[in-house]
Amino acid sequence: MKQLLYVFTICVLLCSCYGEDKPNFVYTSPATNHTQKEIPITTNTVVLAPLAPDNAGNTSIATGNLTPVELIKYAETLKGIPYLYGSTDPAKGFDCSGYITFVFNHFNVAVPRQSVGFAYVKRHIDIKNAKTGDLILFTGTDSTVKVVGHMGILKVDPGKEITFLHSTSGKDDGVTETPLNTYYQGRYMHTIRIFPQNDR
Q1: Third-level CATH fold of 2-43+54-199
Q2: Out of 6, 20, 102, 194, which could bridge 61 as a Cys pair, Cβ 3.0 to 4.6 Å?
Q3: Buried b (16+ CB within 10 A) or exposed e, 40-52
Q4: Distance separating alpha carbons of residues 149 and 169, to the nearest angstrom
Q5: What pTM does this model have?
């Protein structure tokens, strides 16, 4: 019985923040004229071809001309949209990776649909070297299970506390900005860099 409970718990955690029936990479049509009070009614989901992994099984996100400032500016306009498991639709809500997917797809950038897929995105950096626009990966709510189950977009201002934008099913229930506090530090797994500008 203990083994069955353990397997069940692992399955739930692996599915946290994404739906198993979702494609690995998706494109959702961008929202237009979005404000916190005015949410687009519908979005169409179109599957993009997966980004080709390298020989080590890793992948990269091609950000093109997108800048971290543009990404954050748009991501902040979505604050207040409620949490909804498995969703990339702002009219209904977002789960954590659905929020990330929607933000990047707004700029026609393909990303993994599941938070665990970001564990294979090049390249991991030390949190001490993090910059705005880097992505932060966490375990699911059970921090003893070292599998990525939650994520957000970092905001780093010199001399200020590090925060991240994410969609949470916790007390904030939706897209919010949260300090990298003790609770999230206990769930921390990786910081990944996708913007070449952040290497400068």
Answers
A1: endopeptidase fold (from Nostoc punctiforme) (3.90.1720)
A2: 194
A3: eeebeeeebeebe
A4: 12
A5: 0.77
